[in-house]
């Protein structure tokens, strides 16, 4: 009897895609990271997804500053900072300024697997909100006493900057404000708000008081600016006004030279041979007086 034959494809080839990627899966039990597809398949920059994947794989407490990320990636500060801004705008990254029990202000960074307000799937298939970050534990009695002693020894924090209403633009130096407002004509990126102009006006007034022209101040503030600003233009202008030394004051004028009468040379008297000063040689004063007296007696 002949062997049975079948034209049906083998089971191993059933369902295999004919194009595209074929994943070879391996079940990982250690050193792996769980990541939502919404973030991994996010449209946009590949640097942003790479930075997000790297931050997701780090343990809590790892530094994620621009400097730390640039040491890990080959991209520069511009691309890394742009990726962090995109993650922050999408809700995956959050920066908070918090005050410690000792009075210091620090910035804490939170990274969410799912942005707040965008619930992800839970174990039961229902949406699950992300867990809020844990609040710092209150200090122990001994730590609280040490913090209180440190707070008493440390100087008071500077007062917060004044608002725009308390420092109106009308109170600032109008000439300094005019110099700051004209910077956007040289570089269109140097657009300042009213509060920024009020804050920078005193430094510009010091330059004007040092007899520096407005054109020279404009050249100093706009020369060799970077191609891309990593901060607001006001911060760059404030640094240049603070770091550039004021020109030295002009030297004081020298006192006027008092002209002295010329010194007459010495001559030897033809009568008594004494030395005397005179413009020309001849007799000294005593000999002249004696000769004049003799002439008067002879005439009398």
Contiguous runs where pLDDT drops below 50 for at least 5 residues = 122-130, 152-166
Biggest β-sheet: strands ordered side by side in the sheet: 1-2
The radius of gyration computed from the alpha-carbon positions, rounded to a whole number of angstroms, is 44 Å
Number of strands: 6
Secondary-structure content class: mainly alpha
In whole angstroms, the N-to-C terminal distance is: 190 Å
Let me know the largest β-sheet.
Answer: 2 strands, antiparallel
DSSP strand content = 5-15%
Q: Quick one: overall form? A: rod-shaped
Elements, N to C (H/E): HHHHEEEEHHHHHHEEH
Number of helix segments?
11
What share of the residues lie within helices? 25-40%
| Mean pLDDT rating | 77
Describe this structure in words.
The protein is mainly alpha-helical and 300 residues long. Helices cover 38% and strands 8% of the residues. It contains 11 helices and 6 strands. The chain has helices spanning 37-40, 46-57, 66-72, 77-90, 141-153, 174-181, 183-186, 194-209, 214-222, 233-243, 285-299; strands spanning 93-99, 105-111, 120-121, 127-128, 266-268, 275-277. Strands 1-2 form a two-stranded antiparallel ribbon. The chain has a two-stranded antiparallel ribbon with strand order 3-4. Strands 5-6 form a two-stranded antiparallel ribbon. The longest helix is centred in the last third of the chain and has 16 residues, at 194-209. The chain is rod-shaped and about 180 Å long. Mean pLDDT is 77; it is low at 122-130 and 152-166.
